[in-house]
Design goal:
The complex is a heterodimer of chains A (296) and B (278).
Chain A (H helix, E strand, L loop, with lengths): L6 H41 L2 E3 L6 E3 L3 H7 L2 H32 L6 H9 L6 H12 L20 H26 L3 H9 L4 H12 L1 H17 L2 H6 L11 H6 L4 H32 L5
Antiparallel strand pairs in A: 1-2
Helix pairs in contact in A: 2-12, 3-6, 3-9, 5-6, 6-9, 7-8, 9-12
Chain B lengths: L8 H30 L2 H6 L13 H8 L2 H32 L5 H10 L9 H10 L6 H5 L6 H12 L3 H9 L4 H12 L1 H17 L2 H6 L8 H9 L6 H21 L1 H10 L5
The chains are: A mainly alpha (296), B mainly alpha (278).
Chain lengths: 296, 278
């Protein structure tokens, strides 16, 4: 490029040009992240210190005591325990069913692709679609399973199970797809070796297959836990938080704290949820970092 | 894949039976949704809610489209999805390029900050974000519906992974050919990483089309409802109209079903790279 001396100067300008270009490339994302991720995080901590009046026109400083008050309140702990129960109702059974489907469909049979497509098919449904579909299955008045009492949406002791069932079904496709991908990554020779060693199918599954796909299972578990903690549409559509507040998860409570009067307590609850997601997604990211593949 | 080549016939038959049984279980909710969408609600309930449709109305999808006012809802969903997918592609491609191929101050810090947004799901920041949208008078508007989703750390991460797979030789060669950064991005980096970009686009489409919580929070007028939040009001309607809610739900799932059938490879690759919410 340049003829005489300034090799150094040339590098210098190129470096500046790179920096300018890099910042220009990052600005669009950065604007969104500041406006909708970092600023609201700051606002959350701020709002948590105050109580708004009914119209949001004036605020009263409460201080850090509002944090301790809310985070130990019955309201928050109830929400947390319902969210926790929701995790327990959806994650283990979802994982077991996903593995069952994936192991069944991971074999050489004519037409196996058809079964694989059927098992994957629930990824086509959104949470809202799945909820509407399950509404007519377990609806207390007109649902096909209206007499199945352990799923009843009208009983506070069972309503969360009914909601959980729709999530388990909706997540089946995703769980199946990811588990199958994990299974298919296991080299066939390993199974052959295990068979030659006299392992039966059950021992082979628990001693060979399961340990080999455990990173996949770990990843899936984290994803399902995050989904369960963020569950909202299924509750909004199926129960609206009822009956008798029995399905008011943490996110449901946060969503319903948008009136100025409730914003202070709602914000503290959101920070509680943030703490939980922080731990869970930190695990998720470290797994993601190790197992992303690219290209064909 | 497990070795099943020289299996006895009875074993194969047993597997077909097991697979068919599992298929029935997985598809049962969909089947019942179809049955109830096609049945005339009152006759169906009167007939004791059987496993087959009663008094079939073949025109239910057209009627649901009209009665449920689905046209405008599909339009809002489509516009929102198109804006989000194109914006995410653009912002993620640019950011990923900067993080892969450019050297600049605070690169590591900025990358960490970008990735930190993965820890902030919309559910956590909902209260202040809705407040922002309200203060800007953007409730019931396209900017309000898409705002928080115009950039994505997940996409940036995924595409950066793709870019990092580009061999050094290719970069050196194109530099010798006199390609600047923009030319390299357009003529080399994007074409070479097309599979990754396609997977990301499919996943982005899936989550944009299916999202619920945010539109539910920033939409207060019926005509700004996306199809997903429209399903709530449609399904909560009277028993006599339950077929309309179900027909609408089936229609709402169709675009993703098409995606699953025609772009299965991209969809599966994207889902296995990092699961998204549906």
């Amino acid at each position: 490029m340049s003829t005489d001396d300034p090799h150094v100067r040339h590098l210098g300008t190129r470096k500046t040009r790179d920096t300018v270009l890099a910042y220009a490339f990052l600005v669009p994302s950065a604007v969104i992240f500041v406006a909708f991720f970092f600023y609201p995080l700051y606002r959350l901590f701020y709002l948590g210190l105050y109580q708004q009046n009914r119209f949001g026109t004036a605020e009263r400083y409460i201080g850090p005591s509002q944090y301790t008050k809310v985070l130990t309140s019955k309201d928050f702990l109830d929400g947390l325990s319902i969210s926790g129960r929701y995790v327990l109702l959806t994650v283990p059974i979802g994982l077991v069913l996903g593995v069952m489907l994936a192991v069944s469909a991971n074999r050489r049979l004519r037409g196996i692709k058809i079964f694989q497509t059927i098992f994957a098919s629930t990824v086509a449904t959104s949470v809202a679609v799945a909820s509407v579909v399950f509404f007519v299955l377990i609806n207390p008045q007109v649902g096909y399973f209206r007499d199945v009492s352990f799923l009843s949406l009208s009983n506070p002791n069972t309503a969360l199970r009914g909601v959980a069932l729709s999530s388990v079904w909706q997540n089946l496709g995703l769980t199946f797809i990811i588990t199958l991908a994990g299974l298919q990554a296991v080299p066939e020779e390993i199974y052959e070796a295990a068979t030659l060693d006299g392992y039966g199918p059950i021992r082979r599954f628990f001693r060979v297959t399961l340990p080999l796909i455990s990173p996949t299972m770990m990843f899936l578990m984290v994803v399902l836990v995050v989904f369960a903690f963020q569950a909202f549409a299924q509750i909004d559509i199926l129960t609206g938080g009822g009956p008798a507040a029995s399905t008011q998860t943490l996110v449901w409570k946060i969503f319903n704290s948008q009136q100025p009067l409730d914003q202070g307590t709602g914000s503290v609850m959101a920070i509680g949820l943030f703490g939980i997601t922080l731990v869970v997604t930190a695990v998720q990211f470290s797994i993601l970092n190790r197992r992303v593949h690219y290209g064909n | 894949m497990a070795t099943e080549l020289n299996q006895p016939t009875w074993k194969k038959v047993a597997w077909y039976l097991a697979l068919s049984l599992l298929s029935v279980v997985v598809l049962f909710p969909v089947y019942m949704a179809l049955v109830r969408a096609l049945s005339t609600p009152v006759s169906y309930v009167k007939a004791g809610q059987p496993l087959h449709p009663v008094d079939i109305q073949w025109d239910i999808f057209r009627r649901a489209w009209n009665l449920g006012d689905l046209g405008p809802k599909f339009l809002v969903s489509t516009v929102v999805t198109v804006i989000i997918v194109s914006a995410q592609l653009l912002t993620a491609l640019l950011a990923a390029y900067a993080f892969t191929f450019l050297i600049f101050p605070f690169k590591r810090v900025l990358f960490a900050l970008f990735m930190a947004t993965l820890m902030l799901p919309i559910e956590v920041t909902l209260i202040p974000n809705v407040q922002t949208i309200r203060d800007l008078h953007l409730l019931n508007s396209y900017p309000g519906l898409v705002g928080p989703f115009l950039a994505t750390a997940f996409g940036t991460f995924l595409i950066r992974q793709g870019f990092m797979g580009i061999p050094r030789d290719l970069r050196d060669a194109s530099q010798l050919d006199g390609f600047g950064h923009l030319a390299f991005l357009r003529r080399v980096a994007i074409p070479v990483t097309r599979p990754v970009i396609a997977s990301f686009a499919v996943i982005s489409f899936l989550s944009a089309w299916n999202q619920y919580t945010w539109p539910r929070a920033v939409v207060t007028q019926g005509r700004w409802e996306t199809i997903q939040i429209g399903l709530k009001s449609l399904s909560a309607a009277k028993v006599e109209e339950s077929n309309i809610g179900l027909a609408a739900a089936i229609l709402a799932a169709l675009p993703i079903l098409v995606l699953l059938i025609f772009l299965q490879r991209q969809l599966i690759r994207g889902l296995t790279a990092g699961a998204v919410k549906g």
